[in-house]
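Weekly sync notes, structure subgroup
Attendees: PM, AL, DS (notes)

Item 1: joint prediction request from the bench team. They want all two components modeled as one assembly rather than separately. Inputs as received:
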Amino acid sequence: MSKEITSREQDYSQWYNDLVLKGGLADYSAVRGCMVIKPYGFALWENMRDALDKMFKDTGHVNAYFPLFIPKSFLSKEAAHVEGFAKECAVVTHYRLKNDPNGGGVVVDPEAKLEEELIVRPTSETIIWNTYKDWIQSYRDLPLLINQWANVVRWEMRTRLFLRTAEFLWQEGHTAHATAEEAVAETEQMLEVYATFAEEFMALPVIRGVKSESERFAGAVDTYCIEALMQDGKALQAGTSHFLGQNFAKAFDVKFLNKENKQEFVWATSWGVSTRLIGALVMAHSDDDGLVLPPRIAPLQVVIVPIYKGDEQKAQIDAKVKEITDALKTLGIRVKYDDNDNARPGWKFAEYELKGVPVRIAIGARDLQNNVVEVARRDTKEKSSVSLEGIAQHIQGLLNDIQSNLYNKAKAYRDSHITKVDSWEEFEKVLNEKGGFVAAHWDGTAETEEAIKDKTKATIRCIPLNNEHEDGKDMLTRKPSKQRVFFARAY
RNA sequence: CGGGAGGUAGUUCAGCCCGGUAGAAUACCUGGUUUGGGACCAGGGGGUCGCAGGUUCGAAUCCUGUCCUCCCGACCA
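Output from the run, pasted for the record:
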C-alpha cells in the first residue's frame, strides 16, 4: 500500500486528507459528511478536551448535559438565531419504522408523525435558555457558569475531515450574568482561555479579535474569535466567544430580581471550540512525511523501537527499555515500547513519523555496548546519540524544546504573513501571491465587506483586540477609516 | 445545490471504448530466512464488480434510474 503523503506543493487538499487518513486520525464513514474518529485521533481529542476542561473549571465553570433534540418552536424564538441556522438543520419528523408492505426493508411509519418536529441541535442556546428560565429567579442564582461537551449537527453542503463535518464534537459554554459588564468580562476571559490553550498546548499562535457584523454569530451582540494561519496561507477560525447581550434572555423570558427588587433580563455569553481544532493542528505543523503533533497533547510522546538479532539481544534490550520507560513514566511522559516482531525497524520509523510522535528512541546491540540510545525528534528530523545516564530528563527537556520550537516556527511563519496594504492592487497581489493576513483599512460597511469578498474571496477575519488606531482610507472605496482590519482567505 | 471525476479483493487501482471463466500490486494467513530507514523466498485464503431496473443466448463492460464518495464553486465552525 502506498503510504506516501502528497506533497504540499502538489495539492494542498490532498496533502491534508492524506495526513488525516494515513496519520490514523479519522476515516470517512458510511454517512454523508460524517467521519469516524479513530482511536488515535480520539486520544488526541481527549488530551485537548482534558486540558480545556481543566481550564474551564479553573475559571469557575461546571459541566452539565442538555438534550440532543430541540423542539422546532424553540429555535425560532430568537429571530437572528433561527435565520442563521435554519438552512443547515437536520429534522426529526417521525418516531417509528415499520416493515415495508411492498418489500423486505423497513419504511417510516406515516402514522408515527411527530406533532412538533425536533431539530437535531446545531448549537444549544435555545434548549439551554429554555432551561435557564426555570433556574434563575434572583441575583443570587447568578452567575450561572455551565459548559457542556457534546456533539452537534450542521448539515453542510460540502464537508472536509475535521474542518467541516456534518456532525462534530465540541464544547459549548453558556453563562448567565447580572450585568452586561460581567458578561463581557466573561466573553473576554473565555477568549483568552482559548488563545492560551491554542498557543501553549497546540503550539498554534492565534490572533485575538472581534468579528465584523456580517461574520457575527446568529443572535450575538459581539463575537470574539481566535484566528490561526495555516501553511497554505489561509486563515482558520479556531474558536469563538460570544457576548449575547439580553437577546436570548428576552426570547426565552429569563428575568431575575436584582438587589433593588426589580425584574431584569439576564446577560448571556456562549463560547465553543470543536474538533476543528484537530484540523488546525494538522494544517499548521505537519510536513510531507506526515503529522507533527505538539508534545503537550500528542497521544504518544515517545516511541521506543528495538533493533535486534535473536532472542538473547532482544532480552537485553527489553531489560534496558524497561528502565527507560519506568523513568519516563515517573516523569509523566506518555511512552510506548513497540517490540512488535512483525514489523521491521524501518517500517516503524516511517509509521510513527506519519503519526507525528514527537520523539523516537531506537535502541540496538550497538547502543547497549556504548550505553547510549539513538534519539530522533519529529519536528526537525534530527537524530543524535544520547547517553542512558539521565535519559529521562533529557527526553523531558527535548519534549519542551519541540513544543516551543513548533510554536516559534508557526509564529515566525504567521508573523511574516501579516502584510500591511494600502491600495487595492497591492491587496489583490498579496492575497494571490503570498497569502496570509492582510492588514488593510476598511470603511466599516457591510456593503464594502461584501464587495471585497465577491472580488477576492477574502473575508474580514477579525478586528484585532489590541489594534492601533490609525487614520486611513478604505482601499476599495477610499472612504475614511480609523483602523486596519485583518482580511484573509479562510477555511 | 451547480460543474468535474469516481464507486471492481482489507487498501490503491487495471479491466469497460470494442459484452464471452474476476485481474495486479499491496495488505492478510502458513512456514522459513531476516531485522540500524517502509525485507525476502515458497505456499495459501479473500470480490453477489455501489444498488435497482432494462437490452442480450450471455453484462463489471451497453442503456435508464438511484445512492454514495472525492475535487472545484455557492453556504458555513
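Discussion: The radius of gyration of chain A is 26 Å.
Action: AL to compare against the crosslinking data before next sync.
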